[in-house]
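User: Thanks for the earlier help. One more: Pyridoxamine 5'-phosphate oxidase family protein. Can you show the sequence and predicted structure together?

Assistant: Of course, both are below.
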Amino acid sequence: MINKQMDIGELRNEVNDFLLEHKEGSLATSIGNIPRSSPVQYFVGKNMDIYILSAGGEKFKAIDENPNVCLLVNTDYINHRKIKGVQVFGKATTSLKDNSIFEEAKNQYEDNYILDKEKDNLKVIKVEPDEIVYLNSVVDGDRTKQVLRLNDGDVKVIHDTVEHKGKFNINPT
């Protein structure tokens, strides 16, 4: 069975609902051409912007050097055919570079008491998504990906072209 292709509104709602159902992900950054991935907690703001509260770390140096990031949020990994998740590709800015991001996050966070109490210890990363890849293969193993392009209002569908018959074949013919 092939996943139903969603229009931009349906896909946007599906992605937004999924992101709101979760709060943890992995943020991929790159510094000096070396990729890294950091576990993070996030919340969703206006326009599907992602806010990450953090005590600090190398990811801030990486974002300063290269603002292109990817946030992966997914369900438990059952196997390569049964997973649901999103990859959020976008540009990141930090409260170290722009103080207004902290206030912006505070205005959108459900528990801004924590931000007030911990403001000297917390930093904020804001990710403005350009493209979000959505995959839901939990029910039937169909790995059709749907890509939401936020800047140009487009949806693209990518079908899994490898035929799987019981065993994983690294070199499909």
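User: Great, one quick takeaway?

Assistant: The radius of gyration is 18 Å.
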